[in-house]
């Protein structure tokens, strides 16, 4: 099995920065895509950013130019550098690891709160 552990959330003023991390342990081979999603109470989980194995990162329009997704060399950890944060970025952020066979793993979620 795979376990994902997230860290790095917190409270920040608008315009500030945070860096989220998500590390996998267990059977960590053969991931195809690593991604970040976010969710606010009562709403669905929304896509934020993803990076495919040996591919190009892709971002939601709402974060493009402000957020940067990256991975470690082994493709077992994913990071989200969030700059120029806005109040509307406030959410619980989840990392997601995906395999071609359809297996999907989610982190426990980390809260990001941006105050004005």
What kind of assembly state do the chains in view correspond to?
Answer: single chain
Low-pLDDT segments, ≥5 res: none
- Succession of helices and strands: EEEEEEEEEEE
Task: Classify the helix fraction into a percent range.
Answer: under 10%
**Secondary-structure class:** mainly beta
The main sheet comes to: 7 strands, mixed
Mean pLDDT: 96
Shape: globular
The proportion of strand residues reads: over 45%
Annotation, overall tally of beta strands: 11
Helix segment tally: 0
Question: Can you put this structure into words, describing what you see?
Answer:
Strand 9 and strand 10 form a beta hairpin. The model has no long low-confidence stretch (mean pLDDT 96). With 116 residues, the protein is mostly beta strands. It contains no helices and eleven strands. The relative contact order is 0.32. 0% of the residues lie in helices and 54% in strands. The protein is globular. Strands 2, 4, 5, 6, 9, 10 and 11 form a seven-stranded mixed beta sheet that branches. A four-stranded antiparallel beta sheet has the order 1-3-8-7, with no helix packed on it.
Give a topology summary.
Layout: E1 2-7, E2 10-13, E3 18-26, E4 33-39, E5 46-52, E6 58-59, E7 67-71, E8 77-82, E9 91-98, E10 104-106, E11 110-115
Parallel strand pairs: 2-11
Antiparallel strand pairs: 1-3, 3-8, 4-5, 4-9, 5-6, 7-8, 9-10, 9-11
Which terms summarize this structure?
116 residues; mainly beta; seven-stranded mixed β-sheet; four-stranded antiparallel β-sheet; 54% strand
